[in-house]
Amino acid sequence: MLAEVEAEVDLRHHGDAEVRGGGGLVDLAVNVRAGTPPAWLKQCVAESLDGLAAYPDGRAARAAVAARHGVPPERVLLTAGAAEAFVLLARALRVRRPVVVHPQFTEPEAALRDAGHRVRRVLLRAEDGFRLDPGAVPADADLVVVGNPTNPTSVLHPAADLVGLARPGRILVVDEAFMDAVPGEREALAGRDDVPGLVVLRSLTKTWGLAGLRIGYVLAAPEIVAELARAQPLWPVSSPALAAAEACVGPRALAEAGHVAHRVAAERGHLVAGLGEVPGVTVAGPAEGPFVLVRVEGAQGVRERLRERGFAVRRGDTFPGLGPEWIRVAVRDRPTTDAFLTALRASLPPAP
């Protein structure tokens, strides 16, 4: 469904707001992997501090990212998290008819609106499993933004459907911030150079627990990378973040990320199975990311009662295309999930 609307929801609300000021809450609202960064990554970042007197030099990290995806360095732009990339795209690219596919991460639309663009929304439907309908995207769109797997729906769109959106004169932005949580990264477009106008965004903050360090990157044609780079300030990525980027795309990190992806899939299956046994709760799916989207009657009250029992979950009504009956729940280990499911049952409104 196509909608051309004003920003009637709070596009700046994010999961960290759910845990702010809630000391002791179990955080199921933020999609950053718990228990990270690992010790070897902390050591890498700590060792970089000895070089803080020098200005950051991103060449080694850029080359490492390029090698990880099998592309030349000219196709890589390092950014202060994927969120910076959305701002650069909104400010640097000369587009006139941007479209954002929702429900999804709200920063792309917020950045476009802040840059003065009039944004059209394509709203995917719950009854269709929030699956992408390429035919719903207007033919005249010269910028299309879609997540894969999508936050908050956890839907993994087929790569062929995404490629079908590409065409001459259009920038196709695919946010793959959670793709490394998918076993084998199936349906990934990172590294593809045969899709016209393709821009892939990656984040290193989710799997590696680096949200406070801010590191991500863009993969795109050299002319697009150069245009985005001109909109960046000098030295946009700090030396510790560059050291983390280089480490997180190395063989050791990739092997560990692969193991983590399989473990997340197993833990997500346990969560989804448990939610399926809770009356009045529906899980959007099939879920493929490190979080699940859940529909529950009276979700606002359920969230408040969950907080009283020590659990924070992400409200869904600040995502365009969702309503107040939705919540997003991050995947955690089985003991945490079991405790959450117990709290959820106790937090549901009485059956009529």
UniProtKB/TrEMBL annotation:
<keyword id="KW-0808">Transferase</keyword>
<comment type="similarity">
    <text>Belongs to the class-I pyridoxal-phosphate-dependent aminotransferase family.</text>
</comment>
<dbReference type="GO" id="GO:0030170">
    <property type="term" value="F:pyridoxal phosphate binding"/>
</dbReference>
<dbReference type="InterPro" id="IPR015421">
    <property type="entry name" value="PyrdxlP-dep_Trfase_major"/>
</dbReference>
<dbReference type="InterPro" id="IPR004838">
    <property type="entry name" value="NHTrfase_class1_PyrdxlP-BS"/>
</dbReference>
<protein>
    <recommendedName>
        <fullName>Aminotransferase</fullName>
        <ecNumber>2.6.1.-</ecNumber>
    </recommendedName>
</protein>
<keyword id="KW-0663">Pyridoxal phosphate</keyword>
<keyword id="KW-0032">Aminotransferase</keyword>
<feature type="domain" description="Aminotransferase class I/classII large">
    <location>
        <begin position="26"/>
        <end position="343"/>
    </location>
</feature>
<dbReference type="InterPro" id="IPR015424">
    <property type="entry name" value="PyrdxlP-dep_Trfase"/>
</dbReference>
<dbReference type="GO" id="GO:0008483">
    <property type="term" value="F:transaminase activity"/>
</dbReference>
<dbReference type="Pfam" id="PF00155">
    <property type="entry name" value="Aminotran_1_2"/>
</dbReference>
<dbReference type="InterPro" id="IPR015422">
    <property type="entry name" value="PyrdxlP-dep_Trfase_small"/>
</dbReference>
<dbReference type="InterPro" id="IPR004839">
    <property type="entry name" value="Aminotransferase_I/II_large"/>
</dbReference>
